[in-house]
Amino acid sequence: MKKIVINIIMILLIFVILCAVILNFNRKKKDNDNLKTVRVAEVAHSIFYAPQYAAIANGYFEEEGLKIDLILASGADKVTASVLSGDVDIGFCGSEATIYIYNEGEEDYLKTFAQLTQKDGSFIVSREKNDNFTLKDLKGKYIIGGREGADYFSDNYNSII
Which of 21, 33, 95, 122 has its CA 20 to 30 A from that of 42? Predict the structure, then answer.
């Protein structure tokens, strides 16, 4: 008799837990239904976008009624194409892409409306720590640019200074 009562209690307990889980999932889905989705394409994952990543991870956009759908488009040309095609609502890339589209005479051109960074997103990194680094330390060293146009020291990707 005790076994039967224990089995019934266990079954009821499992049923209550399953109901609670199912109801909780439905509540979260309803909360997300009220959010406005903003599709954002970024040109590259960058430390300069850390505030955006933190805001997404901490739910700050959701607190304001927004769901951010963030995608990596890997290049200003792809970001621009994504915005022009309507695949995304906002694109993060250099303003040169908007200038190229405008200069081509497009009627549906992009508009630059914000500046996220004031400097180039490139970094000089080293295998060894150098507490007293100066640019003179680069003399005779190889510099590897991240992409065409990103290497400000020379026109070559693997260049010696």
Answer: 33
